[in-house]
Amino acid sequence: MSDSTEDRSGLTRRRLLQVGGASAAVAIAGCGDIYSDDNPATETPTNETEPDEPDQPDEPATDQLAYGNCWICHHNCGQEVTVKDGATVDITGVDGHPRGSAGAGTEGTVCPKGQAQIEKVHDPERIKQPYIRENGELREATWDEAFSYAADRLEQFDDDHGSETFLNAASWTTTPVVNRFWKNLYGTPERISRGIHVCAGPTFMTGGMMGVGSNNRIPDYQNSEFIIAWGRNMLESFAGQFEAKGVLTAIEENDATLVTIDPQHTETAQKSDEWLQIRPRTDGALALAMANVIIEEGLYDESFVREETVGFEAYRNAVEDKTPEWAAEKTGIDAEKIREIAVGFAEAAPAAGISQWTGTAQYANSWKASQNITALNGLVGNIDRPGGLRLWQSAPTADPFEVCEFTPEGESEPIQGVDLPNNAEGKQKAIDKHDEYSEYPLRHIEGIAHNLVPEMVDNGHLNGIYVHYDNPLKDGNAAAWREAIEEMDLVIATDAYWNGVSRNADVVFPDASQLEKDTLGTGSWNAYSDRTWVTGSTAAVEPQWNTKPDYRIIAGLADAMGWSEYFPWENNREIINDQLSEVDLSLSELESGGDNYELLAEYDYEKWKSGDGPTFWFDLGHIPPFANAADEAGMSTAPEWQPPGTYGDEPGGEYPLEFYDSRAVFFSHGGDQALKGSQERYARRHNLEDKEYRGNYLVIHPDDAAERGIETGDMVEVASETGSGELMAYVSGATRRGFTTTVYGFGPGSVQPEEEGMNSMDVHSKQMDPITGQVARHIAVDVAPTGGELS
Amino acid sequence: MSENWVFYYDFNKCIGCHSCAVSCKNYHNRDPGVSQREREMADWRNVNHFESGEGDAFEEIPVSTSCMHCHDAPCVDVCPVDIIEIREEDGIVTHDRPDCIRCQQCLGACPYDAPTFSEAEDGRMSKCNMCLGQGTGSAHGQDKREQPEDGGVTPSCVDNCVGEAIKAGPEEEMLELASDEAVERFENGAHNQRVIVEPMRRGSEDVGSLVDRVGEGN
Questions:
Q1: Is any Cβ of chain A less than 8 angstroms from the Cβ of B199?
Q2: Tell me, what's the ipTM?
Q3: Where are the beta strands (DSSP E) in B82-204?
């Protein structure tokens, strides 16, 4: 189902197959009976169809069509999946999909990592059944045993340590109930998520404080005439394919100028009019110099700055002496080129946008880099104007705990809403409760930091953890994290693959993969600049082996804890239908009409015109917690220059190279490096498929490689002051001299079944941005051949 | 101008992601992906990455190629058992696979290294069939290739091309959507008129010559 006003005739898929036929669970309006889970055998969903659908033919299985929302990078590109005999055999995109196409009238596609989702369904490397730890060893268990064991251990943990010392580290779950379980019921205030803590804290937080939220990441590509990919590679590492498609559309239809600022060459750099191969971690200097040019030449939006912003004088003062010549020395970019880019950006504004995310946020001095870059948007007044920084809006969804209707056990009348307690109320997080963390400025604005978890475990302030799909061992301070996992009294893992957490867990719940689950996708940025949207899908196939969808895992654990009254839904589809009630939709309606999305409300540009207060803050002195943190960290509240090494590492001496980890188009995060098809593709991309090795590759500049006697295909050791790892070298001019990179999510502790490759965070210890605790991934290292056996 | 099916390739929209190659394997069920078999199975559609230059002049250019279904297919001439055919009805190059003697002479003759020989597929030749059939050796003897609007399938590589860089169809239709410059090059005999290639708009390498380099072992 999509917008009925669009003419979508002619876009019908060439393989007209039956919709939703393979979908498993029975749909019941509203909430169903309380789920009981006495016997694993009873969990197998029936093949009954919805009452309003035609009966399935009894003929031998034919191809059936199902939908999906891709969860490999969890950005919800629409999928059309061909199912044959209960197996997922082919996958393609959904035309016009908000995340997986370029918008109305365009083809939907699925990228290579998204295509791997059909492999994941049947991957024999997956965790196939529950496990519990007995006499120090993990052993296979029934679901009942696993739930009951986990419940006993959680109760014991609460008695021994207090539930407030249990850390909920779930990320990217496909059901919205997980955090309620841990906070409201188990009663822990401790929560760590991926975004701010290990992804791009400074990008998110500066955007939020400056007034634009995290919309500083994704501009209004389709309407843009000048796009800066600042430390971003959105043609390969996109948050939904609409990003890559939007950039290509802007080039083709608007003749947009594309500028990439990146120390390493990428496909985005290749497609750019200008690639500025900046010296790593000097983005903040370049941004200040661009502002200097824009102000000096009077190219900024004076009325926007005057009417809608705060702190311009402090900004002007900060950039006054930051000339292009000054920045050229810091960044290695020619002063004239800096002028040219600054003028080009300002003249194209407001139809000029910047995309920034991880590349400018994952180093220790990145708070100021992010602030300086985001400030350019306010300066040229591109805020919420076509082609500029879009203030994206999301479709509202209902809180299923509030809107669900069900009949409690023993009652005859249905009631609405679950009366959820808040058992975390009054409990303090370790960072606020204990003096040991008073040296960290981040405590003023964050509740926890990834890097500090091992220390908190050492101090006995955290004693247990729930990890769900996401693998913290790929995200900083890896060696200390591994020790912390071993030291914790209770580790519960929900995952599809074995990794350094699940292998060391006390309870392992095997999660069904995305195509085996009902999913709902919502969000803001997408291919339609002025529409909100939702996308949804019922499971394409049944959960494989003895796995369960994550909702059923949480509901089963709740039942064992005696909390089943709080989970009245039979399955996640019922929860999704409750969420969708806010926009008068259901999952089956979403999946009707030849697609699985709906475009919702239209919204205008320049939303700020309807507000009273300022729109944009250059100076962040108005936020006391930040001002306190900045003061302790020794930084100003206004934009300013902080050189590399102010915090974190500076290459030199024994460790002359700067190391960084990024992503390939074949993997997202650390959850799916187990997939053999993706590994193979990554190897072929580097012409190294003939080697047995299927780990990550170290991209090293030919001059750095020659000095060390390294050739492509050699095994090398990367060592920092605190750790090391071994991986295969790929010698290429794609990177700068002195700057060496790899793809994260491999090596010890990863989901790569042989743990092949390097855990890039084994060379990291506690380097971080002091304001957000964002892990700083630029590490001083050296590289040497290991002389290892080459095959 | 001909009704023979050809590929059209616009490097400017190719993001080098290999979605085409993965999609091809999935569609033709050549990608169980979950076993060692994947490693032993050569691609029908390849993405080669050509690196050149230094410093900020460094370039890395992905080029996606497969069997081009050449109107003058050299593989036909060298096959000792005469099983390769340029179909009269749609120009698609197919072969009567069971009779393949695994001599690999077609691979030697192919300008695009398109024929593959994988032990996991019994060592006989397999290659792109423009999705005329589904699966190895499935195209031989099929009816005329239909357009998607008439019930034919969109070639899988085209269907999942993220940048819409690859298209396929009758030559005259492909020339209609090509730029004037691409048409001119084609008409002047670029690539022996086996494939329509858009000129590169950003970058210094001539993508046309890169396409021709694919079969040269780059």
A1: no
A2: 0.95
A3: 84-86, 93-95, 116-117, 125-126, 166-170, 196-197
